[in-house]
Structure formats: C-alpha cells, structure tokens
Amino acid sequence: MALGFLGKLFSFLYADKPGRKNRRLLKQLGKDLAGSRLSRFYKPRQAEAQPAMGQFFWDIYKVLSHAQAFLQNAVKSAQLKQLTVEAFLDMRHLDARQRLNAGYVEEKAQTMPLAEVSHLLKEDLAILADAFDGDFVSRVDTCYTRILQIVHLVSFDYFFFLRMFDSGIVERYFAAVPRFRPVQGTLILEVIKDFLEVAYPIEPDLDWTIPLRVLKVYKNGMDVFTADEWTRLLGALRDLRRSSILELMVRHITQDPQWEFKTRITQEHIAAAYLEECRQEVDGAITGFLYSQRQNQVAALAGELFGDPGIQRLLYYTEKESEAFVARGLDGFAHAQCLNYLKAFMADFFLEDLQPLCELLLVQGHWASIEQSRAVSDLFHTLMNNTNRLLTLEQSLSESGEYGADLRIALAKSERNRGQLRHMERILKRVNAEAWDLLSGTGETLFLLGKVFKDILRGPEQEDGALIVNFRELRLKENDPPLVQRIILAYRRIYTYLRIHQLLIGAD
Questions:
Q1: N or C, fewer C-beta in 10 Å, the chain?
Q2: What's residue 84's pLDDT?
Q3: Cα–Cα distance between 279 and 281 in angstroms, integer?
Q4: DSSP readout, 191-233?
Q5: pLDDT of res. 102
Q6: Please, what sign has the CA dihedral across residues 426, 431, 435, 438?
Q7: Per-domain residue ranges for the chain?
Q8: For residue 382, what are the CA distances in angstroms to 129, 344, 374?
Q9: The predicted structure's pLDDT at residue 38
Q10: What order do you get walking across the sheet with 48-49 strand by strand?
C-alpha cells in the first residue's frame, strides 16, 4: 500500500505536463534549426529569416521568372490538355484523330453519302478509343498532373516574397545585385506555407522528360527552361525538402512544435474527357454539316419563293431580338426563322393571291357535295384566323404589347434579380407555344389546301367527275391570269413553302 501511494505521489510531482513538454520540444526545435543543412536561412533567437533565404529564392526566381509569362494561362488551356493526351498516342491513333473534324465531313460529303461519311468517322473513333485502356489513361493523367505541378511552381509570386527581403528589386531584372536584409518570421509565415503547397508535390527524383516536352510543344518549340536549369532547380528543391528547414521555421514561428505539412496531390483526369470531346466533335461535325445543308436548301427555296432568302417580315419575334434572352441562358424565340417565312408567305401570297382564289372557287364554284365545299371553307377560314393570330402574336411583343413590355422590364432587372429570369422563361414558353401551334396548324392546313388544288386540276379528266362541277365554265370566264394558271401557281407556292416549313420545323 505504501509503495503504491509513494508511486502516485512521485508521478504527480514529476509528471511531464503539457506546458513543460511544449517548452522542451521548442528547445529541441531550436537545436534542430541550428543543425539543419540550411540553418543559415533562419535565426531562432531573433525569429528572423536571413538574407541567405532571400538569396536562395532569388536564384529560383532567376530560373523561373521568364517562364511565368509563358505559362500565364496554362492552367485553363484546352490546347495543353490536348497536347498532353496526344503525346502518348502513336501515329495510327493520331491519324484517326486528325480525321475527326468538320472539315473531313465536308470534304468527304462531296463524293459520298453522309451515312457513309458517318460510318467512316465512327470507325476512326473506335480506333482512337482502343488506345484509351487503363494504363494509357493513368499515364496521361499522371503526366498532366506533373505539368500542372510545374505550372503552379512557376506561377508562385516570388517577386512579392523577395521584396520582403529587398524592397528595391525590380521585377524580372537581374543585372543589379540585391541587398537582402533579415525579415521577421511572422511576416513571411503565410508565404512559406504557400510555397510548401506548390513545391513539395514535386518529386525531384521522378522523370520529368515528357511533361517538359509537352510544355515545349505548347510554347511552339521554345523551352520553358533548359534541361540544366531544371536539373539545378530540382536539386535545390531536393535540398530544401531534405533539410526540412521550411517546416522547422513554421513550427518555430508559430510556436507549435507539432505542426506538420501534409502534401496534397490532386490527380487530374483529362484522358477520358478528351475521348468524350472527340465523340462530341464527331456528333457536332455531322450535325453542323446537316444544319449547313439544311440552311443552304432553305436559302435556295426562299430565294425561289420570295426572291430574297434574307427576307425579314417579323419585327419582334426575331433571331436578333432573341439574342438578349439567349445571353441570359434562356431559349429565346425558338422558332423565329420558320415563323418569319410563314409571315412572309401569308402576307405576300395568301392575302394577295390565295384568298381571292379561294373566295372565287367557294362562291362561284358548284361543288360536287356540300361536305367538300364546307371542308374547303373550313380550311380557308382557318388560314384567315391563323393570319390574324400571327399578327396578334407579333403585336403582343411590341414595346406596348402584352408580352413585350413585361419582357423588356424583366430583362433590364434580370442582372440584379434572378427571379426575373423565371418570369421571362414563363413568358417565352407561352410565346413559343403559340408560335409552334401556328406553324404546325398552318402547315397542316396549307398541305390540305394544296391537295384540294391538285384534285381540282385533275378532276376534269376523271371519269367519276370533278370536285367542282362547273369548273369548265369557270375556266371560260375572263380571268387574268387564267384560272388554271392561278391554281397551278398557288399549288407550287404552297408546295415550295411546305418544303421550307418541313426543313425548319424539323430542326426546331
């Protein structure tokens, strides 16, 4: 019992309390700093970084300063990612990659059907995809990770750091000899931590040949730094790491002898993204070619029908007015091109030619049946009604219209108030739904009316009679131009418009 009591008393009196332990560790930390290979960097007694540390970073800065301008935007560069992936592709895969573009589609489509071109592109894409096995992806991603490590090391603000040792130095000017002075450790504490973040992920003993080669290609054949400069730099970083001087300084400055720096290496993944971009490029090339073909066809048909493929009859529901909404991430006026041609057709041909023609046939014609006459009359009145609806829709988008005023006010407020975007989205959805209904409904009605005109022209030659019983009499009346010619012209115009309509409404 006595021994147990004395043991507890002894333990209490001589226990290593936290404060005592921390002082002991700090004392040992001072010894470690004095014994460090780079002890000249820091004086523990004054807690000051020494001119030798400034000189060390000055030597690094001389190697890396010219590369800072070279690699200024490298982190965001899509070209650098592409070059990294392609550095690991052999010629067979590179040749396949060269063909996965819009120019190849356009060239081949001149001599073969688009379906065959699409098949060739998919074969090339399969060849390229064969290269992207697990080992390939790992090597590419690792290389790009190391490239970014170089970029981050280069991008560190050495000039800001060095000005703490000598405020008179000039950025990227090395002719003058700097006069470094000691700096209080607390002033450079955060900068040291920042440098550890960019320097310690770099493993000096790894092979950096391919990352440097990729950077050289990225800079059009110019070395970011020479092989000797990079070797010396790696040697300096190796010495810095082995000495642990920066970690020791941070511990001493913060009076936290247990502080540790943990290297964080984030693996970049670009290989899979590259392959997906190739797939999207193939799809985009084919889609773009189809769009270009379709627009060329539309332009040719519009030129034939209206005399001008660029005819513009809408004032508000237009592609130009839509740009402001698209810039805010909204759909805008989704059917502007198609609705514009509908407006032109209704204004130029329906009201001028088709309406009088329909009225003549309905009023003066003796139809074979009441049902047929009523069906044609319904088609005619649907077109009249849709013409008025189209004018109403356009007017609603004017500055004083039901939707136009709301859209303009909401657009002006949308930068400060995100809720206005939802308000505009609801309006645009209603407007686009009305436009779509007009396009689809009018297109169907014109198709049926065109069929009626075709049947009228064929009717007199049919044994079972014509749609209009007195059609021969109507033809004999004085008409300028002749009735048959008017019907033929109306049918051709409807047919041409419907071809435009089908090309565009399918795209919408």
A1: N
A2: 97
A3: 5
A4: HHHHHHHHHTT--TTS--HHHHHHHHHHTTT--SS-HHHHHHH
A5: 86
A6: positive
A7: 17-88+131-254, 312-507
A8: 55, 17, 12
A9: 81
A10: 42-43, 48-49, 183-184
Cα–Cα distances in angstroms (integers) from residue 325 to residues 54, 417, 432, 439, in the given order: 54, 15, 13, 22
Cβ-contact 258, 29 below 8 angstroms: no
Helices 355-364, 370-396: crossing angle, 10 deg rounding: 150
Whole-angstrom Cα Rg for the chain: 39
pLDDT along the chain (508 residues), means of 10: 54 57 75 81 92 96 91 93 96 94 88 90 94 96 96 96 96 93 96 96 94 95 90 94 92 90 87 94 89 92 93 94 92 94 95 93 91 94 96 94 92 86 93 96 96 84 66 81 92 96 80
Among candidate residues 125, 116, 67, the one with its CA nearest the CA of residue 93: 125
Could you identify the residue written with the tokens 């790491």?
241
Counting Cα atoms < 13 Å in the Cβ hemisphere of 207 gives: 4
Residue with tokens 């514009």: 340
pLDDT at residue 34, as a whole number: 76
Rounded to whole angstroms, how far apart are CA atoms 394 and 312? 13
* 383 closest CA partner among 477, 490, 297, 265: 490
For 428-458, how does the pLDDT look when each residue is reduced to its tens digit (9 = 90+)?
Answer: 999 999 999 999 999 999 999 999 999 988 8
What is the biggest distance separating any 2 CA atoms in the chain, rounded to whole angstroms? 141
Q: Take residue 302 and report the two structure tokens written for it.
A: 């519009």
* Distance of alpha carbon 162 from alpha carbon 58, whole angstroms: 7
pLDDT score recorded for residue 8: 58
